[in-house]
Specification:
Layout: H1 4-7, H2 12-20, H3 24-34, E1 36-41, H4 45-53, E2 61-66, H5 67-70, E3 73-74, E4 76-80, H6 86-109, H7 120-129, E5 138-142, E6 147-151, E7 162-167, E8 175-177, E9 180-185, E10 192-196, E11 202-207, E12 210-215, E13 218-228, E14 231-234, E15 236-242
Antiparallel strand pairs: 1-11, 2-4, 3-6, 4-5, 5-15, 6-13, 7-11, 7-15, 8-14, 9-10, 9-13, 12-13
Keywords: Iron, Metal-binding, Oxidoreductase
Protein name: Fe2OG dioxygenase domain-containing protein
Domain Fe2OG dioxygenase: 133-246
Length: 247
């Protein structure tokens, strides 16, 4: 019998060509300037539907979280289990390889000692050695009245400073409201919020916690959080790709 995860097929060659073909120079510049960057289309409508359909099954996942029970907001999400669905694992590794240079540039600018290897498997070995062995990619599901409070996905001491979210539903058709929201907190200033315009299959890369900003007196750190505004109608699914594992 075909498992739900294996039924969600994304050809590895297509994914690799698509990720390599993204405008990484522009993405890197946007990340440096604003702490987030849109990728353009990553997944086809059928791939988005296939991933969303996994949510109704238990097999691909290690746990389910109901946000309201923990004060996270309203709605729910499920963490994928190891081994990750092949499509999710491939996308995670391909994106990491392209984002590692940005992460290292930020680490240098913020005078941090650690550096990130080019290979995602090597980085995961570092997570596991630190006791962070639980996979963190997840599917999120929202219904009317649901929302996600502003937060950070840290999960342990070993953190990759960037992550990605991919919208799997169609705004205005599958749901209304439910905008993806990012905030940044600069020293001695009030927080600034940005609503990110996403379409189905589009990804946004964003800072997990801090990013460097060049000021008049040198480099300083800006702290970021992210969340989802109130869903007014319909049903909204999103794929979250976090590159470090959890303790």
């Amino acid at each position: 019998m075909t498992s739900p995860a294996s039924a969600c097929v994304m050809p590895a060659g297509r994914l690799a060509a698509l990720v390599d073909g993204l405008d990484w120079e522009r993405i890197g510049a946007d990340l440096d300037e604003a702490g987030h960057a849109l990728t353009g289309p990553l997944l086809t409508p059928s791939e988005c539907s296939g991933l969303s359909a996994l949510y109704e099954h238990d097999q691909p996942f290690r746990s389910r979280v109901v946000m309201e029970r923990h004060g996270f907001g309203k709605g729910e999400y499920k963490y994928f289990a190891d081994p990750l669905p092949e499509a999710v694992a491939n996308l995670r590794a391909l994106l990491y390889r392209r984002l590692a240079p940005v992460a290292n540039r930020w680490a240098t600018a913020m005078a941090l000692d650690h550096r990130y290897p080019a290979d995602h498997g090597e980085f995961l070995d570092r997570c596991h050695a630190a006791g962070q062995r639980r996979p963190t990619p997840l599917l999120l599901k929202y219904r009317p009245g649901d929302y996600n409070c502003l937060h950070q996905d840290l999960y342990g001491e070993t953190v990759f400073p960037l992550q990605m979210a991919v919208l799997l539903s169609v705004p205005g058709t599958d749901f209304s409201g439910g905008e993806f929201v990012l905030t940044e907190q600069r020293p001695r200033m009030q927080s600034r919020a940005t609503v990110v315009p996403l379409s189905q299959g589009m990804g946004v890369v964003f800072a997990v916690d801090q990013r460097p900003v060049q000021g008049i007196r040198g480099t300083y750190r800006v702290r970021h959080r992210h969340g989802v505004s109130l869903l007014r109608s319909g049903e909204r699914f999103m794929l979250g790709i976090i590159f470090h594992d959890a303790a």
